[in-house]
Amino acid sequence: MPTPDVVAYVRSALPPPPARVLEIGAGDGSLARALRAAGYDVTAVDPMAEPGSGVEPIPLHAVDVPPRHFDAAVAIVSLHHVVPLGESLRRLSEVMRHGARLVVDEMDLAAYDARAVVWWLGHAKIDKQPQDLIAALQEHIQPVWRIREELAAWFDVGEPVPGPYLYRWKIDPALRGEEEQLIAEGAIPAIGKRFVAVRR
Description:
Elements: H1 4-13, E1 20-24, H2 30-37, E2 41-45, E3 70-76, H3 85-95, E4 96-107, H4 114-124, H5 130-140, H6 144-151, E5 155-157, E6 161-163, H7 176-185, E7 192-199
């Protein structure tokens, strides 16, 4: 289940239920279930979806609905995995109505430096060198600037709001406060980026 702050962020940015919402990269379907329980009509997709999760096992570019079908879309730490990115976002633009919001929560690889990696590795208890972890991520993760650049062809893209992210990634979520304090002190960068893009 996404952390409570993620659910609150998504709910605050969505139109009221029963809006039709597309969730991109829905994982185990827990956020989709929470949104359905709140009255939303959710289509959740993820090419790695497990049977019985309530998530369609398809990539974004294969979503098969009529044009302008969705009132909103949600992408929680998923757009950085989407390939092919340009074709997939074009398809997203086709299935969202004009004025619909895309609610994005991402990890900003460009901000992920050795200070942040060392702090995270210390809590994740993974025996890996910081430069090796960064290199491995760079091989398969789209940076936020590229996602925003691609979206700009069809969306008015809001400015990203930086914040904590590492506490949600394979370590104890109770470390959120420590991460926020370190960010405030300038000891580590804010890896999280949240923004809303509106379909023109």
